[in-house]
Amino acid sequence: MTSLGLDVLFKGINMQRLLAGLWVSLRISLIAIAISIFLGLVVGWLMTRKNIVIKAITRVYLEIVRIMPQMVLLFIVFFGTTRLFGWNIDAEVSSVIVFSFWGVAEMSDLVRSSLISIPKHQYESAYALGMSEVQTYLSVIIPQTFRRLVPLAINLITRMIKTTSLVMMIGVVEVLKVGQQIIEANRKSSPNAAFGVYLTVFILYFIVCWPISMFSKKLEKKWS
Amino acid sequence: MSEVLIKIDNILKKYDDNVVLDGLSLDIHEGEVVVVVGPSGCGKSTLLRCINALEPIQGGMITFRGEKIDGRSKTITALRQKIGMVFQSYELFPHKTILDNIILAPMKVQKRSRADARKEAEELLDRVGLLDKKDSFPRQLSGGQKQRVAIVRALCMHPDVLLFDEVTAALDPEMVREVLDVILSLAKQWKTMVIVTHEMSFARAVADRIIFIDQGKIVEEGTPSEFFDHPKTERAQAFLQTFTFDKVEKEA
Ligand SMILES: Nc1ncnc2c1ncn2[C@@H]1O[C@H](COP(=O)(O)OP(=O)(O)OP(=O)(O)O)[C@@H](O)[C@H]1O
Ligand SMILES: [Mg+2]
After folding, report:
1. Which one, A68, A168, B185, B221, has the greatest CB density within 10 A?
2. Which of A129, A134, A142 would you mutate first to test chain B, the one with the most B CBs within 10 A?
3. Do B157 and A130 make contact, defined as CB atoms within 8 angstroms?
4. Segment A2-21, tens digit of pLDDT
5. d(CA A189, CA A5)
6. Per-residue pLDDT band at B146 (split at 50, 70, 90)
7. Which ligand 1 atom is nearest residue B46's CA?
8. Contact at 8 Å (CB) between A141 and A17?
9. Closest residue to atom 31 of ligand 1, CA basis
């Protein structure tokens, strides 16, 4: 036990602290994911409309998100806005803003690509049966889009959860930060703590993300 | 002659500046089987798509029992129920079983009960020899089977006319027959049909009237024997030539 550095986890309330840190990570990602899914559906659908202005705006938005590392976005929102506008945005709120900004862009692009992947003939064969546009969307287009979208969206969700480890850079005490604090505090008494703590963090992330991707695999199999 | 069901009156169809149908007129009578033939790109598919307003027209008028067909009107979904269409690529709904593919529109559009729609769907499937496939998904069926299901799906709406757009063109040769047999049996029951096909012997067998289109215009029309045995126009003769081959004379 000592050699793997797992002993520090059982010292005091270290394990609870790690779990509390995990909850901070999850809270940030869950809120951001919820916002991303909701707004992503709307924006993604808008992107399939033939409006040039909407197309241009969403295009620029997507490009910005693609080019910018999430860390830079975090710094801009957290430090930059304080400097520039004197806003004092809480670190956790900043994180939610940045992750939503990123998630909505990716989600809407997934929604858009799933929607346009439905062949024109699927609409037409529904119309030819006398179905209205609303009936066609509800019974034919949306169910097929959904089947394509879910595995892609779940992949995005797990990536978002993993990437929340970046938020410690702006001072949010999430699971990885707690881990580092524990390692620091026990540097003398258990020099191997780094291994044990990071292993535990790894397992915690795994426990969160694995069921999600299993669920996705199961759905994919069911629908293929 | 029986009553005119669909009247196509001097229609003009363009894509941008490309005129595809150019002042085309055609009456389709109740109980009649009209087969449309012509070279690739002459506008056959476009004509069918205009009939059920999947494509807007830029001039002329199409009426169904005297009622104007207009894709933007409120009555278009009611009219489309009367006009069944079967596509070359089947276009079954991949996320639904065969049975659900067939009963979707009868239930949603015509508000029939599930039990009622299901009963009819099963009878029709039985008639085309596919009752045992009712709980399968489209991907589990062969092309010929999918196309028969597509025909059943159209029939289950009780349309007054059926439009077929090269429904065997995507099929392997050995599956063509099973689909054409279904259409032939519909012809025997006096179903009104407009059929686009490249299968000339089938056209001859099923048609009451052959329409030959070239460059967006009707160039020639007549009974199958008039058209196939004694084509009047040079263009029709040249078109029919493309389906016959002379015995190869090996060079000395
Ligand atoms: N959506 C479209 N946009 C622009 N042009 C089109 C479109 N659909 C068809 N056309 C053009 O209209 C013409 C007629 O096409 P259509 O599909 O009706 O021909 P067709 O007689 O059915 O040919 P085929 O035997 O190859 O199926 C072609 O020149 C085609 O390029
Ligand atoms: Mg065609």
Report:
1. A168
2. A129
3. yes
4. 567 777 777 888 888 888 88
5. 10
6. very high
7. 18
8. no
9. B41
- The alpha-carbon gap from A20 to the nearest alpha carbon of chain B, in Å, equals 42
CB-CB: which of A127, A140, A143 is closest to B80?
A127
Strand partners, B222: B210
Tell me the sheet residues that pair with B213.
B218
Pairing, β B192-196 against β B83-86: unpaired
B109 touches chain A (CB under 8 A): yes
3-state secondary structure string across B82-108: HEEEECCCCCCCCCCCHHHHHHHHHHH
Inter-chain contact B80–A128, Cβ cutoff 8 Å?
yes
Q: Is residue A190 over pLDDT 90?
A: no
Q: Does residue A128 belong to the interface with chain B, where contact is any CB pair within 8 Å?
A: yes
SS3 for B58?
coil
A6-223 maps to CATH 1.10.3720.10: yes
Q: Are strands B4-15 and B83-86 parallel, antiparallel or unpaired?
A: unpaired
- Alpha carbon of B15 to ligand 1 centroid (Å): 9
Has residue A31 got a pLDDT over 70? Answer: yes
Least confident of A50-54, A130-134, B117-121: A50-54
Interface probe, candidates B69, B75, B77, B92, chain A, greatest A C-beta count within 10 A: B77
Q: Is B108 on the interface with A (CB under 8 A)?
A: yes
Closest residue in B to A132 (Cα–Cα): B77
Whether A135 and chain B come into contact, CB under 8 Å, resolves to yes
Task: Summarize pLDDT for A47-71 with one digit per residue, the tens.
Answer: 888 889 988 999 999 999 989 888 8
Does the C-beta of B44 come closer than 6 Å to ligand 1? yes
Cα–Cα distance, B187 to B204 (Å, whole number) = 13
Please name the helix (run of DSSP H) or strand (run of DSSP E) that holds residue A190, with its range, or none.
Answer: none
Pair B164, B90: CB distance under 8 Å = no
Distant-in-sequence, close-in-space partners of B167: CB < 8 Å, separation ≥ 6: B86, B87, B88, B147, B150, B151, B179, B183, B197
Q: Computed from CA positions of residues A145, A151, A157, A163, in that sequence, does the dihedral angle turn out positive or negative?
A: negative
B80 touches A: beta carbon within 8 Å: yes
Residue listed under structure tokens 């003398």: A188
Under the banding of pLDDT at 50, 70 and 90, the label for residue A84 is: confident
Using alpha carbons, select from B85, B95, B98 the residue that is nearest to residue A126. B85
This complex has an ipTM of 0.93
Looking at residue A165, its pLDDT comes to 86
SS3 B21: strand
Residue B16 CB–ligand 1 contact under 6 Å:
no
